[in-house]
Amino acid sequence: MSKNQKEEKILSAYEKAAEDGIDPRCIPQRLDMPVPEHDEIVYPNYTKEEQENWKYLYNRQMQYLPGRACDEYLQGATQLNLSSEEIPNLQVLSQIFNRITGWKVARVPGLIHEQNFFEMLRRKVFPSTDYIRRKEELDYTPAPDLFHDIFGHMPLLTNKSFASFYQMFGEAALNADGINRKYLETLHWFTVEFGLIRNSEGIRIYGAGILSSLNEVQNALSNNVEVREFIPEIIVEQDYDVWHLQPILFAIDSFEQLEQGFKDWTKKVGIL
Ligand SMILES: [Fe+2]
Predict the structure, then answer these.
(1) pTM (2 decimals)?
(2) Is residue 180 part of a domain?
């Protein structure tokens, strides 16, 4: 098999799922026009039902987070003034990030192509949707929505080490190809989406895929999960299945470790 053929075979987990006939909303779209960023973002006219869906999801998920979510996440949610009252305004969130870590928010139409995604991260821009799942999808939605993007991802972007790691991630991903792109996707999965962290009281959650999912938040700290050490060289080789509860997760000791560990690994493989 030639190098090119080999590289063609490397599909992301979502691309594989799309090939298998899974929900078309999960197929990433390439942005062909600039999307609104920061001050350009307009708050949508949400219906009463959409506001109720946010309130329901926020309250249901938040009750599981004390003692489960890491302190940095909970502090971030407070800094962003997240509450059950109202769907947050992306423009206001963008202004808060900009003051704290220099990040901004862009409003995107759905799951975006990885090239667009990495370019935004490199510029310290977090792409977020501004629509919320429908009532019949409250328990599970395969497609990204604002509950996952805002409630799951945004609180940690107030943390300086995490924000620095995420910016480097975008930069490294743009320099990577072939197997290193695949490795980065796996690393993203086991950190940004499904990461755990140890503190003095035990293991806590920081991954957005866990924090925004009812089933994952109950599963992640249970005996069903084997927790392993954060070693990038080992994580990148780990298989995972995006459609089922995770049986293996990795725990960092601090966000400084995540930032430094990532930097060391990318230097070693020559992508930063
Ligand atoms: Fe996510």
Answers:
(1) 0.91
(2) yes
* Ligand 1 center from residue 125 Cα (angstroms): 14
Domain count, the chain: 1
Helix (H, G, I), strand (E, B) or coil at 119: helix
> Would you say 185 and 192 are in contact if contact means Cβ atoms under 8 Å apart?
no
- On the question of pLDDT at 263 being above 50, the answer is yes
For ligand 1, the distance from its centroid to the CA atom of residue 149, given in whole angstroms, is 6
Tell me, yes or no, whether 15 lies in a domain: no
How many A from CA of 145 to the centre of ligand 1?
A: 9
Give the integer Cα–Cα distance in Å for 90 and 92.
Answer: 5
207 found inside a domain: yes
Quote the pLDDT of residue 208.
Answer: 97
Domain region containing 85: 24-269
Give distance in angstroms: CA of 153 to centre of ligand 1: 7
In our burial notation (b when 16+ CB lie closer than 10 A, e otherwise), range 33-57 reads eebebbeebeeeebeeebeebbeeb
Q: 98 CA to middle of ligand 1, Å?
A: 20
Give the distance (Å) from ligand 1 centre to CA of residue 247.
Answer: 19
State the CATH number of the domain containing residue 110: 1.10.800.10
pLDDT in tens, 45-97: 999 999 999 999 999 999 999 999 999 999 999 999 999 999 999 999 999 99
Region of 202 (left: φ > 0; alpha: ψ -120 to 50; beta: rest) is left
Q: What is the pLDDT of residue 1?
A: 41
157 phi/psi in degrees, rounded to 5: -70, -5
User: How confident is residue 27, by pLDDT bands cut at 50, 70 and 90?
Assistant: confident
For the cut 60, the answer to whether the pLDDT of residue 5 exceeds it is: no
